[in-house]
Recover the amino acids of this structure.
């Protein structure tokens, strides 16, 4: 079952200009609901194309299914979760049904992943150098000595001072910012086609977050990247295009300019208004009331309706993700398009 | 007549409800070295006022809060609450102060006992201070739940049945149980989603308006602190580097660290080519602090003098203090307003985009 109507999906594809590197179609990820006959859909019919050289922001509150979407791309959805529908193509190759060993190749070679907590991606009991060289040797067919040189450059590339000495360091001996840089070095070491950064700066202090975003901007300006974050401010920093996700679904997509200047989906409007800005009038923050549906909730109709100021009776039916005035939207009652830039 | 002290230790004529003078807190680090967590910070929160404390993690914010709550013994300085020096009171003498000075912590997941019903969580301080009969306590719990926007039946559930934001509401309800006159909130929204943060910040603002409490709020997000505070103190490596009225600190920052913090705060405004002042490196360790200005190894405008001479916290205007040799001589503010793409204050010309230093 797909909620993206065929025409919308087709239109989405034709609207794309650059080469499509990664193509996700009707992805569904389910978890069993303890004690209940139906499963919980953490990802519910997600489709998108990632174009060469673009930074695509996947934005939404915790629990909206961003990480499960990312983990699906790497074939590492945690059990008992499972991809039950959909397809994932990396260039012309289908990667969602690959055998385990080939998937591992994809993970090391083609898609690099940066997690929020570097300790998830790094082995705490092995030195930074041994983790980097191992990955280079496994995927690049190089000698140990060559791999060490590659590892050195990988650290140097991501702005780690005194990279030679850091090769010997263990992850816990580094500051949070440096650990995140090591994680990025590891993700980049085999020159993957796609980089996924999942809340990679969320746990960092503002000035360190700025350093990492700067690194992404400088070092990865031509890379093809998916940036996952719950913070529209962070997405605004480096993304070219934004996909807003809510309760397992994409509810709005657009260029960064479109989404920031004329958000159409009430949820997107909500995410933007909730961020405190430096405004000396200090208007009251506008929170999104309530909380997102949890795994226990059975959602009918528009999943955002219970929290939406603009909900109407027709919102009891589920809105499809469709083109509305040139924007991909899943909403019966989108906000005005009048402020859209010409 | 300056600060006469009567027999009860009460200070006269202070406008502040909660006050710290030259607070200094050190810890013993492994190897016996001294860790300077907080060094010479003074602050004052007036009744009904909100004062915000910002700084990176490790800058000593929580240590300030916990020391004000008398959970850490300061090595130097004084803590004054409602005119009374409480720095050396014993637990029994502190009881009446504890009732009037409450605290909310960062992590709503670990600050509530998972086995306790919400009724028990909220009524615990009431019982400890012999609030009244069981019926009176239950009524008070219901009233508090309503104040923080939770349904009455929440009382019968346990913390795990609530989301992070709801748990923080519960923590706020608990802190308000005894009708405190001052509340210290240490990163009350840092572990919440941006969308939910706004709920809790607005709740704190509303409660403050209604209940007239003095609020000392700690956060690492300058935009958030600006939004809620009347005055702001910016802290770096255990020391205050800049303070003043919120709009002044954000609109006319005078310390390079404040400027960098402002510049580093992501705001969802168009203009992707925004110039950023990106500080290099990490904050130094409070065990081996740099000589001279503590900020000098990361400062984008560092000069020779800064490496050896420590700039004192100097008053540069009403309620405005800055610890930088070049305070008042820089002109980053207008650049900053342009950098941030925020509406300019009246009379301020937009400047060309620029960044500090090289
Ligand atoms: N191991 C798991 N078991 C059951 N549900 C899970 C598990 N992991 C994640 N989920 C659910 O999947 C949904 C999406 O999670 P996730 O993709 O991590 O969200 P996000 O990254 O947007 O915060 C959440 O509602 C979460 O509760
Ligand atoms: N109980 C303690 N024992 C030893 N060191 C501590 C203790 N509490 C805090 N510190 C240290 O004091 C410094 C300031 O910490 P903290 O006040 O928690 O900073 P913040 O709240 O700004 O992140 C840090 O270097 C921290 O490691
Ligand atoms: S005193 Fe010097 S090093 Fe310190 S903040 Fe000012 S310019 Fe920078
Ligand atoms: Mg996630
Ligand atoms: Mg703290």
């Amino acid at each position: 079952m797909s909620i993206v109507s065929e025409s919308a999906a087709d239109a989405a594809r034709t609207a794309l200009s650059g080469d499509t590197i990664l193509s996700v179609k009707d992805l569904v990820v389910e978890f069993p609901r303890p004690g209940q006959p139906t499963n919980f859909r953490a990802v519910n019919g997600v489709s998108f194309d990632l174009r060469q050289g673009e930074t695509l922001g996947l934005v939404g509150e915790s629990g909206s299914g961003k990480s499960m979407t990312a983990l699906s791309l790497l074939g590492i959805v945690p059990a008992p979760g499972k991809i039950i529908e959909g397809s994932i193509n990396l260039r012309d190759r289908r990667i969602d049904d690959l055998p385990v060993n080939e998937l591992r190749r994809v993970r090391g070679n083609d898609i690099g992943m940066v997690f929020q907590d570097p300790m998830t991606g790094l082995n705490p009991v092995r030195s930074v150098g041994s983790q980097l060289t191992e990955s280079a040797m496994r995927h690049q067919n190089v000698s140990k000595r060559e791999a060490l040189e590659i590892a050195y450059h990988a650290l140097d590339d991501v702005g780690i001072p005194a990279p030679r000495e850091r090769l010997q360091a263990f992850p816990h001996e580094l500051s949070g910012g440096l650990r995140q840089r090591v994680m990025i070095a590891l993700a980049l070491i085999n020159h993957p086609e796609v980089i996924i950064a999942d809340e990679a700066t969320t746990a960092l202090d503002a000035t360190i977050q700025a350093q990492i975003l700067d690194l992404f901007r400088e070092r990865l300006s031509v890379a093809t990247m998916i940036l996952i974050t719950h913070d529209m401010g962070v997405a605004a920093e480096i993304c070219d295009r934004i996909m807003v996700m809510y309760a397992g679904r994409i509810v709005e997509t657009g260029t960064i300019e479109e989404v920031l200047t004329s958000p159409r989906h009430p949820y997107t409007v909500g995410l933007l208004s909730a961020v405190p800005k430096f405004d000396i009038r200090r208007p009251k923050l506008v929170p999104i009331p309530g909380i997102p549906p949890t795994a226990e909730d059975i959602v009918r109709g528009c999943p955002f309706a219970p929290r939406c100021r603009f909900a109407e009776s027709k919102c009891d039916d589920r809105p499809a993700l469709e083109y509305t005035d040139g924007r991909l939207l899943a909403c019966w009652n989108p906000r005005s398009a009048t402020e859209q830039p010409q | 007549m300056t600060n006469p002290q009567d027999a009860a230790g009460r200070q006269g004529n202070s406008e502040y409800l909660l006050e710290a003078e030259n607070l200094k807190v050190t810890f013993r680090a492994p190897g016996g070295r001294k860790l300077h967590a907080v060094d010479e910070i003074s602050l004052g929160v007036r009744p009904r006022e909100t004062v915000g404390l910002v700084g990176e993690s490790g800058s000593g914010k929580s240590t300030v809060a916990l020391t004000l709550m008398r959970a850490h013994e300061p090595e130097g300085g004084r803590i004054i609450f409602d005119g009374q020096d409480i720095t050396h009171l014993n637990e029994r003498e502190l009881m009446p102060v504890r009732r009037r000075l409450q605290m909310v912590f960062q992590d709503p997941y670990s600050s509530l006992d998972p086995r306790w019903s919400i009724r028990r969580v909220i009524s615990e301080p009431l019982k400890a201070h012999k609030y009244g009969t069981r019926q009176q306590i239950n009524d008070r719990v219901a009233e508090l739940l309503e104040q923080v926007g939770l349904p009455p039946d929440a009382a019968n559930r346990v913390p795990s049945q609530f989301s992070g934001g709801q748990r923080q509401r519960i923590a706020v309800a608990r802190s308000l149980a005894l009708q405190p006159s001052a509340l210290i909130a240490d990163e009350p929204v840092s572990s919440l989603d941006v969308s939910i943060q706004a709920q809790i910040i607005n709740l704190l603002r509303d409660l403050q308006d209604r209940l007239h409490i003095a609020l000392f709020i700690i956060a690492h997000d300058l935009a958030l602190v600006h939004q809620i505070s009347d005055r702001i103190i910016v802290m770096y490596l255990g020391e205050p580097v800049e303070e003043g009225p919120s709009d002044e600190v954000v609109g006319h920052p005078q310390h390079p660290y404040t400027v960098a913090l402002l510049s580093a705060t992501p705001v969802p405004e168009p203009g992707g080519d925004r110039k950023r002042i990106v500080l290099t490196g990490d904050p130094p360790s409070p065990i081996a602090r740099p000589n001279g200005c503590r900020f000098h190894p990361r400062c984008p405008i560092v000069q020779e003098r800064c490496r050896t001479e420590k700039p004192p916290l100097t008053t540069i205007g009403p309620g405005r203090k800055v610890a930088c040799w070049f305070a008042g001589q820089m002109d980053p503010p207008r650049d900053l307003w342009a950098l941030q793409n925020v509406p300019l204050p009246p009379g301020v010309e937009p400047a060309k985009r620029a960044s500090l230093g090289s």
Notes: Chain B touches chain A through 49 residues (CB under 8 Å). The longest strand of chain B covers residues 34-45. The pocket of magnesium ion (ligand 5) is lined by residues B 61-62, 186-187 (CB under 6 Å).
